TrEMBL record:
Name of the molecule in the record: Acyl-CoA dehydrogenase family protein
Ranges for domain Acyl-CoA dehydrogenase/oxidase N-terminal: 27-140
Organism: Streptomyces glomeratus
Cofactor(s) needed by this chain: FAD
Annotated Acyl-CoA oxidase/dehydrogenase middle domain residues: 144-237
Pfam families: Acyl-CoA_dh_1, Acyl-CoA_dh_M, Acyl-CoA_dh_N
Length: 403
């Protein structure tokens, strides 16, 4: 791996969350892209977050800002501004920068650029990729991914209720999906349904405005409030055969999509950890109690150091995962362990960080409450902690403990 020869601004700052200087593993060009993205996210996106999170609304001007950033499709050969395609290490660190600013924004971008884009990139044929992906790469069109159902989450592989029935060159979809990010405004929603004739799961691109496709925003969330999750009802939705993703031939192909994107959630969780930790560290140095900054108290330092340990260990795991991905030798259990471990460490760090703020930790004005709440969603989506454990457990024991 070619590493950076450019001195990093924080090399002498031993308080940085990148305590072991993992960014030095990037090349100079990768480092330039990361710094550009970091500046963009913190200057253009971060100021919008609290207002919209509090209202539970999506800042649509954010899409226009992303269009000019060049961040979309960087990991895809032939589509992103950075060619050849960005390494998994750079892609991961970009996901971390997104999580560092806001988990909702990271989720919006991950659904579009990861689940939505990759479903077509991997599951579509060349004609389909040429038809949909260029506009998604520039974010002129936004994507979504509809797999989870109201009565099917982790068990959706064997219990998918959404059906597809072919009639000539048309497929008729019926059923429901739930928790579908971006679905209230997405231009293309990749919907998975079980073919009633061969019982195989297939993927379909349902375009915005298709009759019978009805997304309704889910209200009352305490996490990822900016993300416009929807419950979708599909009633005799007619989709042409040309919109069936030709390379999705069963749930095994859907599992491959999740294997690739699950690691991105782990990188996002790392970003959430870092965001909460840095807030807590700054607060500890500024907050005065008993006549001194609380950073001088031993128990406060203990929480900060434990947080930094979680961050550093998680970063090391994800760096090696990215190397395995770049070499093409990583397996499902590799991404599952990363998601399981990093999300659990994130949960600890956001709780410790909120604790350091005392009563102020439940106020949105101090940001840490947002990280604390959003962490719960990241802990559960793209496979719960328990499901990741079972994937890894099956790998190491050779015995399946799934029901």
């Amino acid at each position: 791996m070619t590493t950076s020869t450019t001195p990093l601004a924080h090399l002498d700052d031993q308080l940085t969350a990148d305590f072991y200087l993992y960014e030095t593993l990037l090349s100079d060009e990768e480092r330039r892209i990361l710094v550009k993205a970091r500046t963009f996210l913190r200057e253009e996106i971060k100021p919008l977050v609290n207002e919209y999170w509090g209202r539970g609304e999506f800042p649509y001007e954010l899409i226009e800002k992303f269009r000019g950033s060049g961040l979309a499709a960087l990991a895809y050969e032939g589509y992103g501004e950075h060619q050849p395609a960005a390494s998994h290490l750079l892609s991961g660190m970009l996901a971390t920068e997104l999580g560092h600013v806001d988990a909702s924004v990271a989720t919006f971008f991950g659904v579009h650029n990861g689940l939505g884009f990759y479903s077509i990139y991997y599951g579509g044929d060349q004609e389909q990729r040429d038809r949909w992906l260029p506009a998604m790469a520039t974010m002129e069109k936004i994507g979504a991914f509809a797999l989870t159902e109201p009565l099917g989450g982790s068990d959706v592989s064997g219990g998918m209720r959404t059906t597809a029935k072919r009639e000539g060159d048309t497929w008729i979809l019926n059923g429901a999906k739930k928790w579908i990010g971006n679905a209230t405004f997405a231009d293309y929603v990749v919907v998975f349904a079980r073919d009633v004739d061969d019982n195989k799961v297939k993927g379909f691109v349902v375009e915005k405005g298709t009759p019978g496709f009805q997304p309704v925003k889910i209200e009352g969330k305490i996490a990822l409030r900016i993300v416009q999750n929807a419950e979708i009802t599909l009633t005799d939705v007619r989709v042409p055969e040309a919109n069936r993703l030709q390379n999705i031939k069963g749930f095994r192909d859907v599992a491959e999509l999740l294997r690739q994107t699950r690691s991105g959630v782990a990188w996002q969780a790392l970003g959430v950890m870092i965001g909460a930790y840095e807030l807590a560290l700054d607060y500890a140095k500024e907050r005065i109690a008993f006549g001194r900054p609380i950073a001088k108290f031993q128990m406060v330092q203990d929480l900060l150091v434990k947080s930094l340990g979680n961050i550093t260990a998680s970063w090391g795991m994800l760096v090696q995962l990215a190397r395995l991905q770049d070499q093409g030798i990583f397996r499902d259990e590799h991404s599952a362990l990363a998601k399981e471990y990093v999300a659990a460490r994130m949960r600890e760090v956001v709780a410790w960080s909120r604790e350091l703020f005392g009563g102020n930790g439940i106020l949105l004005d101090y940001d840490v409450a947002r990280f604390f709440s959003d962490a719960e969603a990241l802990y559960s989506y793209e496979g719960t902690h328990q499901m990741q454990t079972l994937i890894v457990g099956k790998s190491i024991t050779g015995q399946s403990a799934f029901v």
